[in-house]
Fold Radical SAM protein, elongator protein 3/MiaB/NifB related.
Amino acid sequence: MRVVLVDGYTDEPAGLGVPPYLGIYPRYAYGAIKKAKKDARVFYLTIDDLRATFLGEQGIRTRNKTPNFPKVKEILEKADLVVYIGGLHTPGKYLSAVPGSVEEVARFLRDVKATKILGGPAFMGSASMGGVKITSRELQLAESVFDYVVYGDLEAFLFDYLTSPKDADPFRFRNYNELRDYAIIGAEVVKQFPDYPDFVIVEIETQRGCPKAMGIGGCSFCTEPVRYKTVEDRPVEDVVAEVKALYDLGVRHFRVGRQSCIFSYMARPNGRVPVPNPDVIEKLFAGIRSVAPDVKTLHVDNANPAVIANYPEESVRIAKALIKYGTPGNVVAFGLESADPKVAKLNNLNATAEETYEAVKILNEVGAKRGYNGMPWLLPGINIIFGLPGETKKSYEITFQFLKRLLDDGLMVRRINIRQVVVFPGTPLWHMRSKVKTEKHKRLIQHYRHKIRHEIDLPMLKRVVPVGTVLRDVRAEVFDNGLTYGRQIGSYPLIVGIPKEVPLNRFYDVLIVDHGFRSITGIPVPINVNRESPKVLQLIPGIGKKTATRILAKRPFRSREEFFEVVDPGVREVLKDLVEL
């Protein structure tokens, strides 16, 4: 039996599967298929493979491995089963991979003769479409192209379909006992991932559902409690076993990100704010480290700031465990959404502005120290959503002033993510959608987005990564318009613009020389002062155009000391260990 998995990439509130991240869905699907049919040949393709095959080379921007395009067509033609995985619920800015849509992949697969299955969170629609029902044009098209649309867990349906087709239920959800084998067996698919082995970061699941939602209901906009009606914590031993399987295959980058709140893993229910369990979280990360001793990235994702603010002692212990067993550059994303208390109450948001402030302060106290890769060990991020019901003109100013308070008080936030609300079927917001005011406040939203980027993001970025910082292991991913763009591998890595072309898919240590609103400019080090271009030399702090001209006139230098005689004393301090001849 020949099965093709087509990864259209997924981006959800509690999970990321856009390269270089390999999400849970392809791995679990692969594992279910192989458990059901040991002799099945499973081919992993991406939406980029299909774009490049059907649209030509311009269909993709970059990749670590170049596909054999004629072979992609042959694989599809000979397939018995084709499974498409996709779903874009929290769209972001992507560097070298762009998620696909059901509508897009339907065009590519329409004429494929194999049985076709649509899975992952795609059935709920796409945020890029503004939120859609199953009866929308996009998914009507899907139902005309795909033989099965899976509304439950894809892996559960695949196993049932391949072992007892008549009993396969597209609405069935699996439990963690069932998942155990799928996760271990499915680890093998990573070998077919384009960024394998050096650049792939694997998303690891620890929990399903939202602990806060079980107490008082979920946030108005969130799809997580729509899909998962209860909270289920994955056993520590199963998580560790999956990490071991991946590590043994050569994976060195992990994000324990597939949960609504890492601080609520194995927490005790307590109404709005569950009681955290630092002992079991330390056990989890100690276990991961025991089977992955030379891990290069071990990060997390979401956390409810109300948990940290209301249980500071337990949360400090958890934060220290994340630092002890994790790696620097870690970011915990806080879902504030709005600092306006009226908006927070109407939309049943996670935390108040004061709770979020306290949580930011606690993480700064524990995690602001700079680590060996140039980034602080553990910082918060802030998620903002514009357009929620109850917003007034005053709401945007309240949120702005909250962010300004963080800045003015000397605190660090690694990332402020501003999204416009998307209304998905089944969420409380679906029933309040007449109150969504994105069009009414369109100009205000644009104004405050611009204001936050200029007055908060830029000075905050300068604080988090000052000029003169050296970021280690920045992967060069894309070359465009005279600049090479790269980033470290991690949970929310900064995009670094390198002002020249360098070979892609290599790691560089980079000296930070300038800041944008959400990205930075860096120069690979060590710097060869006898060969480097004038354009790059003048970007070095303390040099500029005049000194760069003087350097060019004096080249070649026979020693580092000879070079430092030509520049100001401050340049020596910045470049003392970063110059080569």
